[in-house]
Fold this sequence. Notes:
Helix content: 55-70%
Distance between the termini: 37 Å
Strand content: 5-15%
Strand order of the largest sheet: 2-3-4-1-5-6-7
Radius of gyration: 30 Å
Amino acid sequence: MERAQEHASTGGPDxxxxxxxxxxxxxxxxxxxxxxxxxxxxxxxxxxxxxxxxDDTAAVFRRADDVGxxxxxxxxxxDGPVPEAYVWCNLTxxxxxxxxxxxxxxxxxxxxxxxxxxxxxxxxxTVRLYxxxxxxxxxxxxxxxxxxxxxxxxxxxxxxxxxxxACADRHSWLGFLSPTVSDxxxxxxxxRRLALAAVVxxxxxxxxxxxxxxxxxxxxxxxxxxxxxxxxxxxxxxxxGRPGFWYGRxxxxxxxxxxxxxxxxxxAAAVGSAAARHDRRPGGPAVxxxxxxxxxxxxxxxxxxxxxxxxxxxRSERRLDRKLDERFVRRLxxxxxxxxxxxxxxxxxxxxxxxxxxxxxxxxxxGGIALVQGLLVIVLGVVAHVLHRTDPDRRAVLRGLGxxxxxxxxxxxxxxxxxxxxxxxxxxxxxTGASIEGPPVLLTWQASVIPPLLVVLLGLIGWLARRALQLxxxxxxxxxxxxxxxxxxxxxxxxxxxxxAMAALTDRGPRVVAVTSGVTLLxxxxxxxxxxxxxxxxxxxxxxxxxxxxxxxxxxxALGSWLIGLGFILFVTWGRRAYKDAxxxxxxxxxxDVGTFWPRASHPFAPPCYAxxxxxxxxxxxxxxxxxxxGRLVISGHSQGSVLAAAAAWQLAPSARKRxxxxxxxxxxxxxxxxxxxxxxxxxxxxxxxxxVDCWRNLYRLxxxxxxxxxxxxxxxxxxxxxxxxxxxxxxxxDLLPLPAPILGHSDYQADPAFAEERRKLLARLRPETPxxxxxxHQPEPPAA
Length: 785
């Protein structure tokens, strides 16, 4: 990439850099790439590119010959638009450390559930209840992650292994914590061992706090264009056009304080509960017993304060809110840290005769978290159903239950990751399998339900394969109709039909999610009941039953533990490979492109929202260019870039929006976003976008697994959606394409002649006007040359 000094082609939003009439160009095409990213040279089809504005994270590029287009009087520039490329791929797939964001996958998934609520008008309280339930589910995931770290460091390592002579002998690094190996050393007391091991989950909590704070400064601190606040009663078709939608500083700071305090309280409770349980025995020290009760009451009060902070306030989107919350919220993490320090001091006090036996009370902790998560998901489903019945949308996935289903998957991911780490550490510490008792029984039950879940998933894969074959057979006749003048080749027809069939499977995704989340909820409930009712592993609980039942239980337990270990190893290996391999890191970046488009509304430790940087960038660029030049602007978005383009267009002032045309191709606006996020990309929202911009054209292919039609209701649909583009461009060899044309699918939409033709028509509809007077919406198109 050619680096040159930055050339600012326009001024700020309040003052144009050039006066109308002095420009040499009146048409601009702003290109926005999609998932996976690309280079400005590929987007502009020129090896010589110059960055005109932006930084190393996200920037706008032009061809070297077009840098001074606004200041040039060359009439040749008026023959076509000046192309610009907005490159934002470094926001999601930059340096290697971002591969570690895989550990935050459950947080990202539960954050998506917040934005999947159904469309509802006139039910503000129900909408707030929906957001409240998702925020509480996100809080349980933070507690689950820290509890898993406590299970590994405190229970398995410090309590069980260091307290067992056989296990401590095999791991010399734990020798100074063992009463037998260290001959009663100072650190060998159970409370001091727990206090020292608490450094691990505390460091994890502090690391999450630091990453959340740092990523906010790097990604989400860009302020949108200044606009007056919206009236309280003005709902609008979508919230994406509100002044403060892409600036959630206040809520993220509030949730960050609450989740940090929750993590510290979890560590303090894990350390203090063991000491308090010892002090409450008959004949225990009365002073320490009283101190334990005081600390437990203080921790409970702090936990109530955390829940109150999470429940009290949601997002403030109707205005650009730069203020932070009162001192009480900001002082919550320091208060929790002080309580943790006091708890560590209390646990480390001398207690003669105290020995570590059995497990720490992990079954109660993990069982309580699983129960709360299941109840939250069920109530969330009821609330989502009520919202969907208020304003039904036949295209919404699962009849409005997409959010609860995804929240259930987020909880399942958190449980699998927590159980996987605990199982692997236990197997590593306990080489013989008999020296320590291992992780809580509930985690073993949860691992045992993985094989039945995999059987269900294999059944879904078989159903999808069967459905793909049926669609492929049906598509062969459609391929023959699309190429009526060709001598059909059976292999060529089969490949085209199979590609179309595989692309159509995207629309079956909601059924897969519904079945997976439903089965996960039922199996999780069964695991919780089995663990609490028997307090034994599945194999032990099945002893005395029919041989087939006992064998199935032991097989599920062994296979589940093995599968969790394999999954954990693959997870770490993939993360390590992505850290070193740019191609693998870009694959992870594609996952974040889709998952981190939305602001952090429920979980502050989720990966950062790149759109809170990208949407203000695009909005400022379009607003300043149209104000400075009064010219025509076509924002051209591919795939995820079309979603960014639509979000930026909603943020424009009405006068600037009327001078903008929208060209989308391979766009998931309706096919994915409209169905999964109906409250923000539903039919009403997309129809309003069509009314507000001067003109909009959407291109798609039947072979594209991501892009699809916008499907606006009534006669507006054909105005936006082009007929499906032919793919491949030619069935056989032609004079223009002497070699076999490839099946393009989701890529290279510019290779189709329809792309240039539709762009020309959009530019013809837009006429250059003075900055104060927007162009009329409907004008007759000049005849083609």
